[in-house]
Specification:
The protein has 896 residues and is an alpha/beta fold. Helix 19 crosses helix 23 and helix 20 runs antiparallel to helix 21 (687-704). The chain binds one RNA strand of 78 nucleotides through strand 8, strand 12, helix 10, strand 25 and helix 18.
Length: 896
RNA sequence: GAUCCGUUAGCUCAGUUGGUUUAGAGCGCUUGCUUGACAGGCAAGAGGUCGGCGGUUCAAAUCCGCCACGGAUCACCA
């Protein structure tokens, strides 16, 4: 077979992915083996792959492929999320582009458009995951709004309602005026913003009764019109909703306002001055305007003091009729206008620059959230928090890295009820049905609702037509939190074989940004509905950033196209690039250049294979001693490395595990093993070495496969004859790690050190490899059994044991064993002495440190015997080396 | 503002209960190599007073305290 000198991923990736799928190699069904399960964090159904997905899914695939090769029944379940707000926003935008407004459509018409959109754009991301090599069981592909998942969601809602954990009520919620829906607290992100602080005059209503005692002499509260108070606010447009002014009862400078009424500027309404120590005396003027309908804290004050609440905003953020002024204008336009109007009316005392934080929708980052009173559905969370906290804190359910336990605890200990209703259409419609005469029932189906309604009203004539279903849908996360259960139909059929076999799943791989949205809530649902954790381990990936450390974003244009990268470097190359730069829990500064390293490694593997294919094999040729030794050594090293990889993977140190295989292949197998067994050009290789080499190469491919699935399959299929349907995917890696002789590896390391010394001397003296050299071993050669290898690799004709080194030799040491290279006339005395001087200085410095320790009576008395012993060994080794260096100096004519 | 995490070679990071020959890796860098696997390669090198100051200890990159810088999460004063 004629092989190109470079690996071409495009030629093989599609072929093998198809082969895996056709042979059902990703498919799993319950059997007698131990299961290993991962459920995918479902990407948005209409989303496209970004670097975060690439990282996250590469990790999952590595874990799944590895588990499969360890003899487990491995299952990775794929699926997509309906992403209520994001998808609905996209559909609305598309309709708008076609000149259709959402409110011109019926709910059914809109849903038809939405499903069309889903069919058109849905699933692209799943195709992209195939390009990456993900070994998902595609037969199980699920969608959070498919039949089983929808039924599960509705069932759970009804169940929680029946348990008294879900309630409906008017509360202050985070309102998104663009999407026109409520959001949960977690969906609001606060951004710092430069704004203004407006100081407004509120004149006293009952001027005659003002007795300004305790007024700070410098602050004047009276002008030609009369006495007034000043309020500082960032939101002057909300004054139409003011129903009180509040001061702190301990605030002496505002004491005089107590018990009076003030007039809301421009509006003219009289409002009371109330007192509460919530007010910060130091902030602004110490006077707070209270707008119960539009601020969470004001709402609390309103409740406490029974204040009326005037909702001055419409759902889209424009001013409502209730405001009585500026009706229909946008809230931000009004803020500008009202400042002008206040100023003209002499009611604006001053304006200051101010930095505050404004909440934005996590999904529509350009829309400021409006705190708004509205009727919503809530889930009581304390019950769930109580269940979900202990297993994480006591490490039954492990977080990697563990620092996120803190974040988790923090949230659960300050848990607030979850607003689960959304004023959208794309989602699971809340199964609450309103009765004609008021009140409602909650039921899984309309039929059951009718039954309940009849029972409730004692009226057997009620029909489905009389009931009106709640218009709202549920928060997307209300379906996602059931994912590890609903994927196996464990809500609808709690005793089915699949849920019992696959649940609890093993690992969840996700980003720390959704620890509250998703991870915590899945844990809650897991305990509520299965009495057990949904997964045993959570691996939190970092955020993929660009090489300057910035988040990847569309607006910065710094996010590479994943498919473009795969086309450029191959899926294996990109996977490796990502994994090499992704230590657990750290953010990943992604530089495309690192994919080159991945690609180069593929090429290295490819060329190693090419080398083995170029040999002719002879059954008669005898196995050289050096080859026998190399096989023995590399087999031991492979066993050692496999054990290391096991250990690293068990700690989710995937990056380090990959680096271990990388170095094993490149530095040990390619640079040493292959160079040792490589026959002289044109000569055949003995069949024994050849077969051993293929065995070792195969084992390397197995270890590499979870990281680089495509190239390893391609080469594994070609190393030896395979039957149709066979795949590297289901080979076992369990046998690679076995007991080995550590001395074999240690001796080989010493042998490599000798070779490197000789090569270094060759370079200094400019002696090419073709000129054979002779090495002297002084008194004894502890590496004698490896002579054949050292000769071949260092280009030596002989390694002689001598009693004393000859003149004209360059000495060196391997450990404490002395060697020298015969150089004849090539020796440069001055350079040699300079080298020895440097070495002596180093050794003496080292010895001094050791002696300082040993000379310290406290050290000798307190340190463990083994540590003291080690220091003594260091001392004797150093002394021995120093003696050797001095001896070498003497021979070069230096008196020491 | 509260809590947590980090600061080790030019870059990205290891360094697992304090002691393993006066700190390791990958990439990058330097120098030398064109005939037989691979220049996307081979070989040999250079490079760090472990953020700063103090403390505990026979012994500190490792433990404690303070400071500086960076990051995360939560909470916010209108």
């Amino acid at each position: 077979m004629e092989l190109a000198s470079k690996y071409n991923p495009a030629e093989v990736e599609g072929k093998w992915y198809e082969y895996w799928e056709n042979n059902k190699l990703f498919h799993s069904k319950p059997d007698g083996r131990e299961p290993f399960t991962i459920v995918i964090p479902p990407p948005n159904v209409t989303g496209v792959l970004h670097m975060g997905h690439m990282l996250n899914n590469t990790i999952q695939d590595i874990l799944v492929r590895r588990a499969r090769m360890m003899g487990k029944n491995a299952l990775w379940v794929p699926g997509t999320d309906h992403a209520s707000i994001a998808t609905e926003a996209k559909v609305v935008a598309r309709l708008a582009a076609q000149g259709i407004r959402k409110n011109e459509l019926t709910r059914d018409e809109f849903m038809k458009h939405a499903w069309e959109w889903k069919e058109e754009h849905g699933g692209i991301i799943l195709k992209q995951l195939r390009r990456l090599g993900c070994s998902c069981d595609w037969d199980r592909t699920a969608f959070t709004m498919d039949e089983i998942r929808s039924e599960s969601v509705i069932k759970v809602f009804c169940d929680l309602y029946n348990k008294g954990l879900i309630y409906r009520g008017v509360r202050m919620v985070n309102w998104d005026p663009k999407a026109k829906t409520a959001l949960s607290d977690e969906e609001v992100i606060y951004k710092e913003e430069h704004s203004k602080l407006y100081y407004l005059r509120y004149y006293i209503a009952d001027q005659d009764e003002v007795t300004p005692t305790g007024i700070d002499g410098e602050v004047l509260h009276k002008d030609s019109i009369g006495w007034y108070a000043v309020v500082a606010t960032t939101r002057p447009e909300t004054i139409m909703g003011d129903t009180a002014m509040c001061i702190n009862p301990n605030d002496s400078k505002n004491r005089w306002l107590s018990g009076h009424k003030v007039i809301v500027p421009l509006v003219g309404r009289e409002i009371p001055v109330i007192e509460d120590d919530y007010v910060d005396i130091e902030f602004g003027t110490g006077c707070l305007k209270v707008t119960p309908a539009h601020d969470v804290n004001d709402y609390m004050l309103g409740e406490k003091y029974n204040l009326p609440s005037i909702d001055i905003f419409n759902d889209d953020g424009s001013i409502s009729e209730a405001a009585g002024m500026y009706v229909g204008q946008d809230r931000f336009a009004v803020r500008k206008q009202i400042a002008i109007d206040l100023d003209n009316a002499g009611l604006l005392e001053k304006m200051e620059d101010y930095t505050n934080k404004v909440g934005y929708s996590e999904r529509n980052s350009d829309t400021a959230i409006e705190p708004k009173l509205s009727m919503q559905w809530f889930l009581k969370m304390q019950h769930f928090a109580d269940m979900a906290l202990p297993p994480v804190m006591n490490d039954e359910l492990k977080f990697y890295p563990p620092k996120y336990k803190n974040t988790y605890r923090n949230w659960l200990e300050n848990i607030k009820d979850w607003c689960v209703s959304r004023q959208l259409w794309w989602g699971h419609r809340i199964p609450a049905y309103y009765l004609p005469g008021g009140g409602y029932v909650v039921a899984e189906t309309i039929e059951k609702a009718v039954e309940k309604a009849r029972a409730r009203n004692h009226d057997a004539t009620i029909t489905a037509a009389d009931l009106r279903q709640d218009e709202d849908v549920l928060d997307t996360w209300f379906s996602s939190w059931l994912w590890p259960i609903s994927l196996f139909d464990g809500i609808n059929n709690p005793d089915n074989e699949e849920i019992k076999y696959y649940y609890s799943t093993n690992d969840l791989v996700t980003g720390p940004d959704i620890i509250f949205f998703w991870v915590a809530r899945m844990i809650m649902a897991g305990y509520e509905y299965r009495g057990d954790m949904p997964f045993r381990n959570v691996y939190f990936t970092g955020i993929v950033r660009d090489k300057l450390g910035r988040k990847m974003s569309k607006s910065l244009g710094n996010s590479p196209d994943p498919i473009g990268l795969i086309e450029k470097y191959g899926a294996d190359g990109v996977r490796m690039g990502l994994m090499l730069s992704a230590p657990a829990g750290n953010d990943i500064p992604f530089d495309e250049a690192i994919c080159e390293q991945g690609r180069n490694f593929n090429n290295k593997i490819w060329n190693a294979f090419r080398l083995t294919q170029s040999w002719t094999v002879s059954a008669d040729a005898e196995q050289p001693e050096s080859s026998r030794l190399a096989v023995e050594w590399f087999d031991a090293l492979l066993a050692k490395s496999a054990a290391e990889i096991d250990d690293l993977m068990s700690k989710y140190r995937i990056s380090e595990a990959l680096m271990t295989v990388y170095k094993l292949f490149w530095d040990e197998f390619a640079s040493w093993y292959l160079e040792i067994i490589k026959p002289v050009y044109g000569q055949p290789i003995d069949s024994r070495t050849y077969n051993s080499t293929l065995d070792l190469f195969e084992k390397l491919l197995l270890l590499l496969h979870p990281f680089m699935p495509f190239i390893t399959e391609e080469l594994w299929q070609n190393v030896r004859e395979r039957k149709n349907g066979e795949s590297i995917m289901n080979q076992s890696i369990l046998e690679i790690a076995h007991p080995y002789d550590g001395k074999v590896i240690a001796d080989f390391e010493a042998c490599k050190a000798l070779v490197t010394e000789v090569r270094s001397i060759r370079k200094q003296k400019n002696i090419p490899m073709r000129d054979a050299l002779t090495v002297e071993a002084i008194c004894t050669n502890p590496l004698k059994h490896l002579n054949s290898i050292m000769k071949k690799m260092a280009g030596l004709d002989n390694i002689e044991v001598v009693n004393a080194k000859s003149d004209g030799t360059a000495p060196f040491m391997v450990g404490t064993a002395e060697f020298a290279v015969r150089l004849g006339g090539l020796i440069d005395v001055d350079a040699e002495l300079a080298k020895l001087d440097a070495e002596l200085a180093h050794l003496e410095g080292f010895l001094k440190g050791v002696m300082a320790k040993l000379g310290n009576q406290n050290f000798v008395a307190h340190a463990p015997a083994a540590v003291v012993e080690l220091e003594r060994k260091k001392q004797s080794d150093a002394e021995q080396k120093i003696a050797a260096v001095k001896e070498n100096m003497k021979r070069l004519g230096r008196n020491c």
